[in-house]
Amino acid sequence: MTNDELWDDLVRAERELRSARTRFLAEDPTEVLRRKLALTGDTPPDQDLALHLLHTHGGTRPDVVEALAPELFEWSLGANSYRSQWMREVLCLLDRQVLERLLRPLVAGFIADRSRDAADYSGLLALLDMADLPGLARTVTAAMPRTHP
Question: CA 78 to CA 10: how far, in whole Å?
């Protein structure tokens, strides 16, 4: 197969992907995406695809992003993960007031969960900074476990 033929295959596959993505997003993809975002085990290819789809097209479906806020919140907590950064960016596509309304109970639950580690706190503070929610950031900072007396 020549490079030109391989290129034509790529173009055809990209067209098919765009068409499938358009059809998928035209319906309500919330429950399928929720299942794909379930945090269990390794990150399979379909989970990566769900994260990528939300990162690249979440702005076209704020209703879906809002409905998936609890899952996206959990994904946003990693400190050094491109996936966490992507989900912070997706959440920040929402209107600031909507995002604050969605995050308040999630932050309260986060603070109450004593199993959270430094990376989780770092990711949450990065999200709150990106979202320009300094009041919630102060609440989180005040509640952070102290490692030194």
Answer: 33
